[in-house]
Amino acid sequence: MKQMLTLTEHSQLKALSDPLRAEMMMRLLERPYTGQQLSVYFNLSRAKVHYHLKELEKNQLIAIVKKEEKNGIIQKFYQSVARGFTPSAELLPHLEDINETSRQFLLQMAERTKSVILSAPEDAFKMNKASEDPSDWDYIGSMWQFSAKEEHFKDWIKKYFALMQEFSELTKQDLPNHPDSKIYYISTMAFQIDEPIMEELKSKKEEK
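Structure tokens predicted for Winged helix-turn-helix transcriptional regulator (208 residues):
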């Protein structure tokens, strides 16, 4: 699976902007599924799931990664072709569709994170000692709000991805079945909003 796929067709944007397909893509980012498995997961008819899978496959967003025979029937397993998607310069005029696709993916990420939190083990949220030092914590849960220039926000994004790449390289040898290894789920979202949510920035804005 590629890390990033550049979307070059308007039809790809339209395919991803559909809420149900966006939710399907979140599942197919995680692991391969058959149409039958997705039908059960979403409680939808196989015909409806098959239609949406074909739309995603036609737009080269998913691919068949393996086939298995069960009771004389060939089962096809689909998976996303990339972990992330970004529009090409040619698609920038279709701003409304780009915005809706991004919104749907962020919504699905938020829903997925919520379900992971609810199913996480009790040990995930343990507190071994009281401390204001983040390095003593076993998990992170925080919300931030800044008034910033766009260039500063983009600089932060660049550093964030560099940090995640550094962490990825650092943990490559930490195999999941190692007795000292734990599996961590990291979900991050950051985007522009119209009005301050937190009182601190509201007050600063009113003072001006």
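The chain has seven helices and four strands.
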